[in-house]
Amino acid sequence: RRKLRLPPGSYGLPFIGETLQLISAYKSANPEPFMDERVRRYGSIFMTHVFGEATVFSADPELNRFILQNEGKLLDCSYPGSISNLLGKHSLLLMKGALHKRMHSLTMSFANSSILKDHLLHDIDRLIGLNLDTWSDRVTLMDQAKKITFELTVKQLMSFDPDQWTESLRKEYVLVIEGFFTLPLPLFSTTYRRAIKARTKVAEALTLVVRQRREEYNEGKGKKSDMLGALLASGDHFSDEQIVDFLLALLVAGYETTSTIMTLAVKFLTETPLALAQLKEEHDQIRARSDPGAPLEWTDYKSMVFTQHVVNETLRVANIIGGIFRRATTDINIKGYTIPKGWKVFASFRAVHLNPEYYKDARTFNPWRWQSNSSEAANPANVYTPFGGGPRLCPGYELARVVLSVFLHRFVTRFSWVPAEEDKLVFFPTTRTQKRYPIIVKRRSANHV
Ligand code: HEM
After folding, report:
1. Ligand 1 site: residues with CB under 6 angstroms?
2. Model pTM score
3. For labelling alongside 199, which of 41, 222, 251, 338 has CA 20 to 30 A away?
């Protein structure tokens, strides 16, 4: 028998472990109830048994960093089968080893700052502007943010501007996304079965696009500088199925994440008038430097210093990705404990982001804490990981920042607004507001476009 020193904790009840406690805890208004209670009892590393698996939970920044950095060496990413089916086996999120490394760097290079600067920024600005043109009176911000995010991703992946085809793709795609948030019980859940059907339809539509672009590529015409173009030109001879899974995973990965942060940034700003005033001033100054209708330039984006504080703080307080799961591929001895081979590990980013040891009044939205002269600016890098880290660092992190900043720019310079109804932030089954944040918008004067 192996001699193991397991972290403290409890297996809970036979078979179901502490699953019910986990689910019911997250129905409270507290963002980290399950973790908070156990961290108090056992410390920042503890074991439990949830969703049928023995799991070590970490609220410890050093262990979280170790988990991220050792991906592919001592640990592997691990998703339930129901999620893998929706993603498709060739998705970047499921790839491992050398192929993962290659495809991760291809994705990173597709959304790096020079590409963003040279052409993506203008596309993002134009498409956000077109969406905002249609807004009047009552707008459900979360729904609109999702529409914007979807259209931007389709443009970046395949160079399509929004039209009837993208809209019908979006309707199917929304059904796929719902499948990610149902309990993984494929036989019993109609939402899940509907999601699988919708995935087939989305994949069929994307396959047609890939085939047509491949033909054009082989004939040497119509080369486009989008993700699909990069995949066709990569020399790896990817099959249609591989490319479709890959594109679909990129659509999924940036969708809920970016749109939720867009919505919650507006909610937090609305509730923090001083921050909103400072943000407006920053953006009004940018508008004052150029014609009212002029597109945003890279230098404008780089001058949005307070906006970055707002984005950082929204990601800290209410990131939809509370942490990441991995599976230990060998016994891991760390910090005096053993994580046995085959066990799951959950590195909780949120538990660190909301720990008062690192962030004063940690549960309060305070964008000024990101100013370079604040004490928190000296925190080590491992206490702020909204985009993960290591070999699976989010390849869309820079893109997401640009999208969020451009959205805030166009939104605050074009509109004033008030919440249409009381709406509450909840953390279960995902981070969102209960009513998808309805607001009443009013256009500001004509030179704010
Ligand atoms: C606010 C927005 C976003 C947040 C908070 C976010 C967060 C994250 C996090 C934490 C991970 C690491 C997952 C892990 O280690 O298992 C990740 C991975 C990933 N993200 Fe993002 N993301 C955002 C936007 C985007 C966008 C816009 C894209 C589109 C290009 C994207 C594409 C991906 C992909 C493909 C992965 C998987 C990487 C891999 O497994 O190698 N993300 N994201």
Report:
1. 77, 92-93, 104, 107, 111, 249-250, 253-254, 257-258, 261, 315, 319, 321, 324, 386-388, 392, 394-396, 399-400
2. 0.94
3. 222
Radius of gyration of the chain (CA): 22
Ligand 1 atom 20 nearest Cα:
394
Q: pLDDT for 148-167, tens place per residue? A: 999 999 999 999 999 999 99
6 vs 18: CA distance, rounded Å: 17
Q: Which atom of ligand 1 is least distant from the CA of 321?
A: 10
For residue 389, give every residue at least 6 positions away whose Cβ sits within 8 Å of its Cβ, in sequence order, or none: 65, 68, 69, 382
Judge if the upstream peptide bond of residue 395 is cis by omega within 30 degrees of 0.
no
> By C-alpha distance, which of 108, 112, 113, 111 is closest to 391?
108
Any idea which architecture 1-89+322-385 has in CATH? 2-Layer Sandwich (3.30)
Q: Read out DSSP for 110-173? A: HTSHHHIIIIIHHHHHHHHHHHHHT--EEEEHHHHHHHHHHHHHHHHHH-PPSSHHHHHHHHHH
Q: Which two tokens stand for residue 186?
A: 């494929």
Indicate the domain borders of the chain: 1-89+322-385
Q: Measure 110 CA to ligand 1 centroid, in angstroms.
A: 14
Provide ipTM, 2 decimals: 0.99
